Amino acid sequence: MIENYKNKILQGDCLELFKNIPDNSVDMTFADPPFNLKKGYNSYKDSLQVQEYIKWCETWISEMVRVTKPTGSIFLHNIPKWLTFYAAHLNTIADFKHWISWDAPTAPMGKTLQPGHYGILFYAKNAKELKFYEIRYPHKRERKSKYLAKDYGGKKGLLHPFGPLVSDVWTDIHRMKHNKYRDDHPCQLPLHLLERLILMTTDENDIVLDPFNGTGTTALAAKRLGRNYIGFELDKDYVEITENKLLQEEPNSKIGDFWVSFYLDNVVTIRNNDWDGLKNYYYVPLKPEEIDKQQIILQKNISISTPLKSFSDLKKECKLPDLFEEYDTKIIYKSSI
Ligand SMILES: C[S@@+](CC[C@H](N)C(=O)[O-])C[C@H]1O[C@@H](n2cnc3c(N)ncnc32)[C@H](O)[C@@H]1O
Question: Could you point out which of 93, 169, 315, 319 has its C-alpha 20 to 30 Å from the C-alpha of 298?
Answer without folding.
Answer: 169
